[in-house]
Amino acid sequence: MLSKLLPTKKLTLPNGKIVVEKRSLTPLIVLLLLGFSYISIQVTGFDFGMFINRIREFFVIIQEMIPPTWEYLPQIWQPLIDTIKMSILGSWLGAVCALPIAMLAANNITKIKWISSAVKFLLSLLRTLPTLIVALIATYVFGLGTLAGTVAIFLFTIAYVGKLLYEQMENVDMKAYEAMHSMGLTTIQSFRYAIMPQILPNYLSTSLFCFEGNVRYAAILGYVGAGGIGLLLNENLGWRNYANVGMILLLLVITVYVIETISEYYRKKLK
Amino acid sequence: MNDIVKQLELEPSYRLSRIITVFVVLLFFGWSISAIQLDEVESNGWTVAKNILLGLVQPDTELLFNVTNGVPYLLLETIAIAFLGTIVGAILAIPLAFLSASNIVPKPIAWLVRLLLIFIRTIPAIVYGLMFIRVTGPGAFAGVLTMALTSIGMLSKLYVDVIEDLDTSILETMESIGSNVMEKIRFCIMPQLSALFLSIVIYRFDMNLRDAAVLGLVGAGGIGAPLIFAMNSYRWSEVGSILIGLVILILVVEYFSNKIRTKLVRG
Questions:
Q1: Which pLDDT tens digit goes with each residue over B25-73?
Q2: How far apart are the CA of B187 and the nearest CA of chain A, in angstroms?
Q3: Which of chain A's ends, N or C, has fewer CB atoms near its CB within 10 Å?
Q4: pLDDT at A11 over 80
Q5: What is the pLDDT of residue A1?
Q6: pLDDT confidence of residue A157
Q7: CATH 1.10.3720.10 domain position(s) in chain B
Q8: Cβ–Cβ contacts within 10 Å for residue B166, how many?
């Protein structure tokens, strides 16, 4: 629509033909972006001078993190393992529960229109809420501790895996399913033998990918009191004990890297 | 024995590997279930849950529609943080991405830059937020710097995938007809990269919006701070109106970003 408003450029080729070239939208987009940037700079109080003057402080903090305090290591293991347990449990339960919910949301399996759109809407609502805010709410409902964190990860996993799963279900080949239905199998049975084999590899790989991300999220959930290593991170940052923070971050980076490498290997195998 | 049965018997048996997989998965489940401590659950959890739901149904309409001091302004601030952070991050990520692409620079350099990017990516945004607050003081500016830094980590990683897929035969063609470096960048590299890069940046803006909403929890501006204040003082109707505003904003932005990205990628 926008391209119709702008005048087109006419080029005359050496052989006399006239070619019409569309105007590029780039200048307009750049102008819009600059405008938004200006508004944002006003709203956020972006101050480049202060940034130049004070950015040294940031590197001072990083310098304090190196070398990390190795003696602190024994105290981190337990919260770290709690964090991993939280993300495994939340992802596991979430991935399992996502399957029936995705069945309800897929409009080729659930034939009743309003149920599938209602479930889809619920899933997108769940997905929009940031995990940390869900965890914060969960600490009010379930008390401080790992349970709240697990619930937050569980809900996020349902929303994420559920969405990708129902999109896959809607794109599967329905012929086998309909054939089985016509032979007298129930919906669950024909789903199990006709659709499950088609979506299973993708389902597992999506769940693994979600688990990878959840380990990262779980690491900060402790900040709002939802258990795991985030609590220590918060404490040490509060006490400005940056060497300890460095130790926690180092361990976190290694853990996330190891889990990602393992899960990436299996996801490649699933393809 | 008919053909079908023969064919069925020819299929390799996956029984053992399936049993092992299920066993390992259940083992993980059993191991991790010990993380749950049920003794911390407070008995008034249900009343709190009920209150939150009531707050969502009966939001504080004055806060929700007050343009100068209410939810709209907070949302604008959150958008501004995410927007500026994404722009700064997107620009700074370009040189880093080229430095970590193994078809552009020597392998050791690419590997080193990648290691740095892994570090930048894994450290949670909240930690950066707390560090930048020490630099600039609490406020939206710290949020912008945090968003910029976290965006660099992920954007560079996604940029690299695009850069490594560059079609170099066009580059050779241009070299053979005598183009100089600037021409090569302008007419060969930029057209190949720009649409995909833009699509990546818009996707990251989508994610940054959620992160910017969270950053307020540490005092780095945006909608998170009023949210946590309202929760700590059990003003659930305010919590309700803030959450409603946030959810609507994220849904709207997600809708438009999906539209634009499909258009960019499919042309």
A1: 899 888 888 777 666 666 677 787 888 888 888 777 777 777 777 888 8
A2: 15
A3: N
A4: no
A5: 53
A6: 94
A7: 48-266
A8: 16
pTM: 0.84
* Partners of residue A92 in chain B, C-beta under 8 Å: 25, 28-29, 32
- Range list of H helices, A106-145: 113-128, 131-142
Chain B residues touching A136 at Cβ < 8 A: 217, 227-228, 231
**DSSP category for residue B103:** T
Q: Where in chain A is the domain with CATH 1.10.3720.10?
A: 70-270
Q: Which of B127, B141, B257 to mutate to test the interface with A (most CBs of A within 10 A)?
A: B127
Residue A6 has pLDDT above 80, yes or no: no
Test B211 with A86 for CB contact under 8 angstroms. no
B chain contacts of residue A233, beta-carbon cutoff 8 Å: 124, 127
Cβ of A249 within 8 Å of Cβ of B224? The answer is no
- What pLDDT digit, counting tens, does each position of B163-191 carry? 888 888 888 888 888 888 888 888 888 88
Spell out the CATH class of B48-266.
mainly alpha
Among residues A214, A221, A222, A201, which one has the least CA distance to residue A259? A214
B254 touches chain A (CB under 8 A): yes
The CATH superfamily assigned to A70-270 is MetI-like (1.10.3720.10)
Tell me if B52 and A140 make a contact (CB, 8 A cut-off).
Answer: yes
The burial class, CB within 10 Å (0-12 / 13-18 / 19+), for A157 is buried
B-chain CB neighbours of A143 within 8 Å are 40-42, 45
Band of residue A92 on the pLDDT scale cut at 50, 70, 90: very high
DSSP letter string, B60-77: -HHHHH-TTTSHHHHHHH
B138-147 b/e with 16+ CB inside 10 Å = b? bbbbbbbbbb
**Dihedral of the CA atoms B220, B221, B227, B229 (nearest 10)?**
70
Which positions of chain B have pLDDT values less than 70?
A: 1, 37-43, 267
